[in-house]
Amino acid sequence: MFKSERDDKKPFVPLSFFVIAVSDTRTLETDTSGALLKEMIEADGHHVFDRTVVPDVVHQLRARVQGVAADTHIDVIITTGGTGFTGRDVTPEAIEPLFDKRMDGFSVLFHQLSAQNIGTSTIQSRATAGLIGKTFVFCLPGSKGAVRDAWTGILRHQFDYRTKPCNFVEIMPRLQEHLQRLEVEQ
């Protein structure tokens, strides 16, 4: 795992998350990956605003993510499932066009962590991330192992204001500067 340092002199800042399982076969009761993710997020002191299941249908998933991203109460959306290569795996196709900014480093780091546990099978995931407006969006594979790797190895640290040398929480107030700049330029 990668080492992250923490400055315990800084306060913890809880964030609001929304978890979406992308599946044609799971329900909230059978979605073990989403349940695990919710448990880990809350154990680390954050709030899960809601958790839902959306079918592997591009327009339905895209509409749901757009609606959640527009909610000013939500800081982070995490999807689980639909990142593979089968015909029903459409999460990247549905979500990536919505990104105002892509986070290519997430996929790279996720695959490095994942390879430690599942070897070369990590290439079968198209995990992706980006920013929609001021909302962070992460698209994870649907397995519990992938969800655990992403949360414990990357996201837990980047969504902790105390993480050094930098983290997402400290830049959140500045995420929409590009919109302000566009208003000035027009």
TrEMBL record:
PROSITE patterns: MOCF_BIOSYNTHESIS_1. InterPro entries: MoaB, MoaB/Mog-like_dom_sf, MoaB/Mog_dom, MoaB_proteobac, MoCF_biosynth_CS. It comes from the Bacteria. Pathway: Cofactor biosynthesis; molybdopterin biosynthesis. The keyword Aminoacyl-tRNA synthetase does not apply. Keywords: Molybdenum cofactor biosynthesis. The keyword Lipid metabolism does not apply. One of its GO terms (cellular component) is cytosol. Coiled coil: none annotated. One of its GO terms (biological process) is Mo-molybdopterin cofactor biosynthetic process. CDD domains: MogA_MoaB (cd00886). May be involved in the biosynthesis of molybdopterin. PANTHER family: MOLYBDENUM COFACTOR BIOSYNTHESIS PROTEIN B (PTHR43232). Belongs to the MoaB/Mog family. This is Molybdenum cofactor biosynthesis protein B. It comes from Paradevosia tibetensis. The lineage of its organism: Bacteria, Pseudomonadati, Pseudomonadota, Alphaproteobacteria, Hyphomicrobiales.
